[in-house]
Design a protein that fits this description.
Porin; 241 residues; mainly beta; 2 helices; 13% helix
Amino acid sequence: MTYGMTSSSKQIVMPVLLALVVWATAGSAVAQIGRDDDQATFTSQHQVGVRLGVWSNSGATPPDRLIDTTNSIEVTTDINSASFFLEGFFGYRFTSWLMGEFSFGLSNRGDVVTRDTQLGINDVAALNIYPILLQAKFYAPPLLGGKLHPFVSAGGGIYYARNSIQVTDEFFFAQFREDSETDFNYVLGGGFDWPLASQVGLDFNVKYMPIEFSEELVGITDYKALTVTVGVKYLYTPKKQ
């Protein structure tokens, strides 16, 4: 497992976070001037929804074939440079310009086929990555008369990856031939919200995930990625408000 950030990462992230806070604080003051009732409603609402988009690999790529002669293992991979990304999320509105968001995502990178040449066992596994993230979203003044609400986001969480067997010649003890890795790291992003009605909205979201495992998974440790998604969300205000 990898914990925390390297010194070079901190040198990049800390100035970015400071700039986000300053920009969002200034934007919130401007946003108070002349906003209409619909905009005021959106900027007080919580959000829950789902996003679908593309996971684009920006790190290393697992080799097409790996051979472990010591353990009589042959591995062939079909790992895509891009794949679908699915993400569910909940956003809690603290102020008109600040929201906290919890999200859980899934990306299937492709298939991994393992053959034990000594025992004659074949396994077909799926390489899945699960980002579990907590972020702060900083909203700037709205655009197009309040129709678009741009934001930037920063946070961190757990990146869990698992090479999980789907089909095998030998079912018993198959879990011992699976593998997984975990990384605790940051995430940066941005995009915009587009409220369509009082309780329905869309969003466009881009995130950079600098995933780096401490041990190799399918021959590599560098799983950095960029995700681009479009989401649909339910907007609501708690009854107590």
